[in-house]
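Hello Y.,

Per our agreement to keep a running log of every chain we model this quarter, I'm adding this entry. I've kept the format consistent with earlier entries: sequence first, then predicted structure.
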Amino acid sequence: MEAQASGCTYITAGHVFYTDCKKGIPGRGLDFLRNVSAAVHIPVYGIGGIDAGNIALVRDTGAGGVCLMSSLMVTEDVTGLMKAMEE
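Predicted structure for the entry above:
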């Protein structure tokens, strides 16, 4: 809410799921992302451990989108990964 009040036009919220970028720290979970998304009127982008296997769960939280890092860095088929994310 502070970011929104400060004039931000979007925010990222995470890390949603466990990710190697935050080794040893559990993800905050889908309820966290759902609560952040419901608390503001600007787009919220989920980040952290998001891949083709869980992106649908993230979409169901009301988040405006996702940010990817690890899944893009380890894939050998970026086009295939992005297509899988659309399904």
